[in-house]
Amino acid sequence: MILLQIATDAATATEPVVSESLSVIDLAVKGGFMMVPIALAWVIAIYLFVERYLTINKANQDPDPFINKIKSLVQKGDINGAKMLCTQTDSPIARMIEKGVTRIGSPLKNIEASIENIAKIELFKLEKNLPTLATISGAAPMMGFLGTVMGMVEAFISISQEEGSVSPKLLSSGIYTAMITTVAGLIVGIMAYLAYNFLVSKVQKVVHKMEYTSIDFIDLLQEPR
Description:
Structural class: mainly alpha
Largest sheet: none
Number of strands: 0
């Protein structure tokens, strides 16, 4: 009997413990309807990041080869050639210098003002939709917290309707279901925040190149001929 009991205990101890595993989709479904706006915000954030990254990265070109050609053409007096080069170059710096080239012969202050105005327009284009990405970084966690609060309310309502003692399984399942939206909202918010700051740093690099190029062009106009 003792040997039989030991064998039974050993067999029981070696039995695998079956635990319920949930996929990401299952967790998202358990999060409730607040997962829909969070998922929508995630899709929008991805689209805005990819679109802005491609646009800003295209604008973030080395301006030295372009400005060197402009200098050579202007020094030769080939203003039409300089205008054509600016037209053929698709970049904020080229459009900014093009306005300056078309104003050659005007007072220097007018040229500077026209270049500055074009620079402001180009900066506005580069920063397009970045405020939306920043809004998502702040709104997504708030939506997650709202979903959690709503889920906790539903969980406590279910607990109050239970007769007798409340099982720990019912309590824990209601709480973890409510916490899913918080996790999702924080993930979306953090990723959108990092993407926003990354794009802002890229825009600042472009702005620095625009300022450097405009100063270089104005210095070119001030050189004696």
